[in-house]
Write a structure and sequence with these properties.
This protein is mostly helical. It is built from 6 helices and no strands. It has a domain of 69 residues: Homeodomain-like (Arc Repressor Mutant, subunit A, Orthogonal Bundle). The chain is elongated, with a radius of gyration of 17 Å.
Amino acid sequence: MRSYPRYFRWDESGQHPSRAQFAAFAHSPYKIRFSFAFKRETGYPPREFENQIRLNRSRDLLLHNHLSVSETADTLGYSSVYYFSRAFKRAFGSSPQQWLKEQSELGMKQNLT
């Protein structure tokens, strides 16, 4: 983030902050300033941003790594499959299982054309 380069780094891929950095800032004296600056830069509060990144990553794990919903939830640190499924549905409009089915059907249609 531009406003806090000494306190905040992007992860190895250069795309988003690491979970450890979010955790460090949760107990930091800079927490409030950081939260305001982060939201100004990204449009999202830090926790919401982190959750969206985890959910976006979940689609990749489900589709390309062929992990089960349970394995995906565990890999991404969700406390339960139920909580992960609810968050996924809130974010993308369908459950992980339904989303996978839709992606499979889309893939079959694209192969036919």
